[in-house]
Amino acid sequence: MNDTGSCSVAHDACAVDGREAVSVDGGPALPPSQAQTSRVTRTALLGGAVAGAGALAAALPSLARSTQAASSDARILNFALRLERLKAAFYEKAVAEGALAGELRQLARVLGQHERRHVNLLLRRLGDEADAASEFDFGDATRDADRFARTAQALEEAAVAAYIGQGANLTRQSMVLFAQIASVEARHAAWIADVLGVDPAPNAADEAKTAEQVLAVLEKTGFERGS
User: Fold this and answer.
1) pTM of the full structure
2) How far is Cα 115 from Cα 83, in angstroms, rounded to an integer?
3) What domains can you pick out in the chain, each with its CATH number?
4) Rounded-to-integer distance, Cα 90 and Cα 136, Å
5) Where are the beta strands (DSSP E) in the chain?
6) What gap in Å lies between CA 114 and CA 118, rounded to an integer?
7) Per-block average pLDDT, block size 10, for the chain (227 residues)?
8) Using CA atoms in the order 222, 119, 205, 172, what is the torsion angle rounded to 10 degrees?
9) How many whole angstroms separate alpha carbon 124 and alpha carbon 82?
10) What is the spatial distance between Cα 20 and Cα 32, in angstroms, rounded to a whole number?
């Protein structure tokens, strides 16, 4: 016969210090307090594993949405980059050719600097996702003062409408960058309108344009010559 305080592992229960010991899942018999702790620990681990799996499953749609949002941001930012590259090249070419004078020359110089900075901001945000640059042929649009002014007005108005139309489709982080550029583009449009003797603020709210509408303006100029 076994002494008090000992038992056979072949039994599910025995006396330990006068109390009944319990075998947990067929293992060695344990005092009741230890057996209860073992069960609680195992239950907690199992519950934690289930909760972790549930959290992961819930996070998957969020991760998918985040990936889709990043892809959408890149597409919209590349659209803006295409527009900003064209405008930067347009103004820089006009300054380099030296055919403009007075306020038009000053406008071309200042706007060219701004557009180049916009290009750099967009390139930094896009990184490796930035599209390749196109080549441009501006013909006499950068040498003829009247044509330059009319073209600048069309481009700046298109830019303002583009930023208004696409800004709400961006994630918050990219939306801030868009808003910072859009406010400057509106000033550009007002300046060239004033030079042309046109009301720089004819409406209380500017109209938004779709990407297709803005691209139609760019294509109408015939300036782009492919990548």
Assistant:
1) 0.70
2) 9
3) 68-221 (1.20.1260.10)
4) 8
5) 13-16, 19-23, 29-30
6) 6
7) 46 46 50 52 52 56 54 92 97 97 97 98 96 96 97 96 93 91 96 96 90 92 83
8) 130
9) 14
10) 7
